[in-house]
């Protein structure tokens, strides 16, 4: 059985390492955060895939493909905020490079690719979305 907690923790730990090393504010999925218009921050979210059996046997391995999403919020009021967000997105994308193996609680996962999606924005921030595809076999 694929353990979703262990997947989320392995991915979060990698994102937190990047955040700590670069002094970025990382907001975990489900945490409340009252953003300020002049604040740069990153929100994370795991989109789990379905667990699919690899073989026909009841004891065969399961595989899951999922997406780890990081949203980089940079202030519109900041000159160069759009470019700053794209730079931060590049830092995270590099830290989740293709082939990276992550593990937590005995659950191993592998990064398949990381892509920066087209920029979006809300009333106060530019939003750069990083889509990180991972695979897990158990």
Mean pLDDT across all amino acids: 91
Q: Note the run of SSEs as H and E.
A: HEEEEHEEEE
Q: State the secondary-structure class.
A: alpha+beta
Helix content: 10-25%
- Number of discrete helical segments: 2
Strand content: 35-45%
Q: Measured on Cα atoms, how large is the radius of gyration?
A: 16 Å
Instruction: Give the biggest sheet.
Output: 8 strands, mixed
Tally the beta strands.
8
First-residue to last-residue Cα separation: 6 Å
Shape assignment:
elongated
Unreliable segments (pLDDT under 50, ≥5 consecutive)? none
Describe this structure in words.
The mean pLDDT is 91. This protein has helices spanning 4-22, 81-95, and strands at residues 26-27, 41-47, 52-53, 62-75, 101-104, 107-116, 120-121, 125-137. The relative contact order is 0.23. Helices cover 25% and strands 39% of the residues. The longest helix is centred in the N-terminal third of the chain and has 19 residues, at 4-22. It is elongated, with a radius of gyration of 16 Å. It has 138 residues and is of the alpha+beta class.
Summarize the structure.
With 138 residues, the chain is an alpha+beta fold. The chain has helices spanning 4-22, 81-95, and strands spanning 26-27, 41-47, 52-53, 62-75, 101-104, 107-116, 120-121, 125-137. The protein has two helices and eight strands.
List keywords for this structure.
about 140 residues, elongated, about 25% helix, alpha+beta, about 40% strand, 8 strands, eight-stranded mixed sheet
